[in-house]
Amino acid sequence: MKKFISLYVCMFLIIPVFAQTNFQNLSLEKALEKASDENKLVFVDCYTSWCVPCKHLMNVIFPQKIVSDYLDSMFVCVKYDIEKENGKAFEDQYPNKILAVPTMFVTDSHGNLLHVLRGAREADDLLDNLKKGLLGKPLYEIEKEYRQGNRELDLVKRYLWFFECVGDQHNYAKVAGDYAAQFPMDSLWTPDIWGMVGSYI
User: Exposed/middle/buried for 104, CB within 10 Å: 0-12, 13-18, 19+?
Assistant: First the structure.
């Protein structure tokens, strides 16, 4: 009887901690439609069958209640193996964005890219990063304004932060270097600017 009670108590304690994020078997087109109907965003987990960090995300991080509650409340969630048809189609929609797996994407219901995040982060880090990505100006607007010539410090800093999220050192160095090239050397010593460009001068 004592063993039964102990088992029951353990089950009671575990249930609130673990759930399962509701990843739906939908094409991107259907996911966007569903997000529009439900007034949500779309969360996409891109993975491969052989990727160990991807399995950690799927088996350890996404089932945590704190994660599943947030993802399910905010997003229509889908996952794509990038070596299979849906995954290849998704990668074609957002070329040069998957540098490694796992890579997670957030889009609005029109497919505009709001945020990209790479790596099997722990639950708190994942949620903090997702929330930070959604609080400010989204990635697609940053990219558009940058292409149009906006070089304001706050915009450049946010653009560089998005590169940090996916570990894109090549584009980080290019944008940081281009920003530094606008100024004479003696104007680069302010902490805000030097923190961004110092490694690339």
Answer: buried
DSSP secondary structure of 33-81:
HHHHHHT-EEEEEEE-TT-HHHHHIIIIITTBHHHHHHHHHHEEEEEEE
Give the other-Cβ count within 10 Å of 81's Cβ.
18
For the entire predicted model, the pTM comes to 0.85
pLDDT in tens, 79-121: 999 999 999 999 999 999 999 999 999 999 999 999 999 999 9
Residue 91 near residue 83 (C-beta atoms within 8 A): no
Shortest CA distance to 62 belongs to which of 44, 49, 88?
44
> CA distances (Å), 119 to each of 26, 85, 93, 136, 151, in order?
23, 22, 20, 21, 29
* Number of residues that make up the chain: 201
Helix axes 65-74, 123-135, angle to 10 degrees: 20
Q: Which residue has the tokens 């088996």?
A: 59
26-40 tens-digit pLDDT: 999 999 999 999 999
Q: At what angle do helices 139-147 and 153-166 cross, to 10 degrees?
A: 120
